[in-house]
Amino acid sequence: MRSLVIIPVTMATYVRTTNEGCCSVSFLKFVLHIFNFIFFLAGCAVLGVGLWTVIDKHHYVNLLTTSTYVATSYILIIAGITVLIVTVIGCIAVRQEDRCLLLIYTFLLLLIFLLEAVAGVIAYVYQEQVISELEISMNGTFTSQYQFDESRTAAIDRLQRKYKCCGALGFEDWHYSRWLKENPEEKRKVPDSCCKTETLSCGVRDHPSNIHDVTHLLISLRVVSEHLRGKSKII
Questions:
Q1: What is the per-residue pLDDT across 178-199, written as a single tens digit (0 to 9) for each?
Q2: Where is it mostly found (predicted)?
Q3: How far separated are the first and last CA of the chain, in Å rounded?
């Protein structure tokens, strides 16, 4: 007759088996920490892109007729800050094995993905609309607002200096500008910022040898479209 041998299972044996292998608690904690670290780096990247857009490109935003471009940048900033906060909550939740914090962590992750998805869709859609918007608004902004709107005047001059261009569609645009029509005593034919070598009243000559012959519209299309495309790829 075979004897039945009973092997007692102690709590120590149970704890040891649950802390071993690829499904152990320690391994899952390690994976979550790695995920949190990668998520933290992604949050820093998203936040950096948003801040760079607001700081570096805000001079040219008021040349656009809608606030979609600015809204996308602030969505990225909010998403980036939220990611950094969530990673801290995630680390605390994993370390303390706090169920409540883990639920909050999961909810915030879903919220972040939603924010970034919205920003990505806006950037993608706006990328397709930006060409038609610039064609309609850019020339009108240049010819009607220059020297009458201080912020837009500064933005136009800065754009012409930085990208070595003149006019929205061409330097001839300035001949029909409100600035020259309402100031017949003005001897300049184009703003001084159009000049290859900018000096006081250098805009009296609009010959290609004196001014840049690249149009604003082409430059703006490339800069804004590439920036929006970069945002959608990052998201």
A1: 999 998 888 899 999 999 999 9
A2: membrane
A3: 71
19: amino acid identity, one letter: N
Residue type, 54: V
- For residues 92 and 108, give the distance between their C-alpha atoms in angstroms, rounded to a whole number: 14
Yes or no: say if 83 and 71 are a contact pair by the CB < 8 Å rule. Answer: no
> 166 to each of 4, 67, 176, 210, how far by Cα in Å?
96, 25, 14, 11
Residues present in the chain in total = 235
**Tokens, residue 181:** 């029509």
- State which amino acid sits at residue 44: C
DSSP 85-131: HHHHHHHHHHHHT-HHHHHHHHHHHHHHHHHHHHHHHHHHHHHHHHH
C-alpha distances (whole Å) from 143 to each of 83, 167, 171, 185 are 43, 9, 11, 17
pLDDT (tens digit, 9 = 90+) per residue, 97-125? 788 888 888 888 888 788 777 767 776 77
Nearest-Å Rg of the Cα atoms of the chain is: 29
Q: Residue 169: how many CB atoms within 10 A of its CB? A: 15
Residue for token pair 């899952």: 28
What is this structure's pTM?
0.57
Contact in structure between 82 and 112 (CB atoms under 8 Å): yes
Query: Which residue type is seen at 141?
Result: T
Residue with tokens 């001839």: 172
Residue type, 153: T
Coil, strand or helix at 73: helix
Q: How far is CA 33 from the centre of its chain?
A: 27
